[in-house]
Amino acid sequence: MKPLTGKTIVLGISGGIAAYKAATLCSRLVSWGASVRVIMTEGATRFITPLTLQTLSRHPVATDVFDERDAAVVQHIDWADAADLVIVAPATANVIGKMANGIADDMLTTTLLAATAPIIVAPAMNVHMWEHPAVIENVNKLAARGVRFVEPGTGQLACGYVGKGRLAEPEEIAEAAAAWLTGPRPLAGRKVLVTAGGTVERIDPVRYITNDSSGKMGFALAEAARDYGAEVTLICAKTDEKPPGGVEVVRVQSAADMHEAVLRRLGAVDAVVKAAAVADYRPAVRHDAKIKKSGETLTLELVRNPDILQAIGEWKEAHPGERAPFTIGFAAETGDLEKYATDKLARKKCDLIVANDVSQPGAGFGTDTNIASVFGPEGLVESIPLSAKRQVAERIWQLAAERMNRA
Ligand code: CTP
What we know:
By secondary structure, the protein is of the alpha/beta class. It folds into 2 domains: 8-181, Flavin prenyltransferase-like (Rossmann fold), CATH 3.40.50; 191-406, Rossmann fold (3-Layer(aba) Sandwich). The chain has helices at 21-31, 42-47, 50-57, 75-82, 93-100, 107-114, 127-130, 133-144, 170-182, 216-227, 255-265, 308-318, 337-347, 389-406; strands at residues 8-13, 35-40, 85-91, 119-123, 148-149, 153-156, 162-166, 191-196, 201-204, 207-209, 231-236, 248-251, 271-274, 281-283, 302-304, 326-333, 352-357, 369-376, 379-388. It has an 8-stranded mixed sheet with strand order 12-11-8-13-16-17-18-19, with helices on both faces. The two termini are 36 Å apart. Residues 255, 274, 276, 278, 280, 305, 307-309, 329-332, 344, 348 line the site of cytidine-5'-triphosphate.
């Protein structure tokens, strides 16, 4: 059977030069069995004709919200209700801005506002537009609402620039749609909080203490949770990696910032993953001005940071009637994995601890792979052999979802 048989997809095309690529996308979705209803903005019809899309989708194309052909239904509501998924490709900066702000002034944006189905947005625009703070803010706003982005690619843009902004390949968008509609969704309806990266503890305005965490494992967990259907908030400390699309990103610096950001969200999330490398100590004094050199030695006094994972455990005990998040901790060790991991699990009252021996090749900081042992209150739950961090993340979520459902 074709993978999208029985699925109805509303494909919204907005007015950018990449609109012509939407024809390939439409044709691919139809060939995978989907029933595709195309809506084009006025601008899109300047780049490609509705007749092309009508022929490919084998349905009339909607362009005008007032052009009601069937008196029995209100078309934008009817299509919004029928959709299993809405795709906007290409999405211009304008349509993204309208979506983020709830503006409904044409057939596409009105249908988007009426739709309760998941939405995939594939942006395409000039690199400076894509990097404009207004667009970034709009994208983050939509991501926080659960809109999934298929990020634009980098290359030669139609405007002559080379940079990021080129519509993702139709194949990639079709695959994201198929994954969304047919993939496993063990976290559907769940809200999860993932922390990632290494905290930054400031000494003075130009110096700080941090660690080698790359953020890759946390990002893989956020991405896997998103694909498993969760609404994801990623609390992100220092990292050089780009966070995944389709998740709400909250930037923090220090352990104290992260502590505040996590605790503020407790009671409203179903799971918390502490993949961040949190500094255990911070400088006792944060100097407002750059420290000038003086003597031959300099002693820096450090004081203990709050233990965030432990604070979550304490919060759960202090709020028995509230929505208690399933907590997953991490333990990066260089030996005695089981002893340290089970000790941390008990001390920090988490539901699962993912331990890795960072001295092993292919495990730990900076790598794209990991080797992990997952411990629960009963002891070793599973040893995950050397795998891509994304695969490790999927397995962790599968184990967590089973336990969350049981509880
Ligand atoms: N953690 C935390 N807050 C801290 C320190 C650690 O939330 N201040 C979390 C980490 O994010 C991780 C888990 O606790 O999920 C274990 O971190 P780790 O540094 O291995 O544990 P520590 O308790 O700091 O133990 P030690 O450094 O002595 O090994």
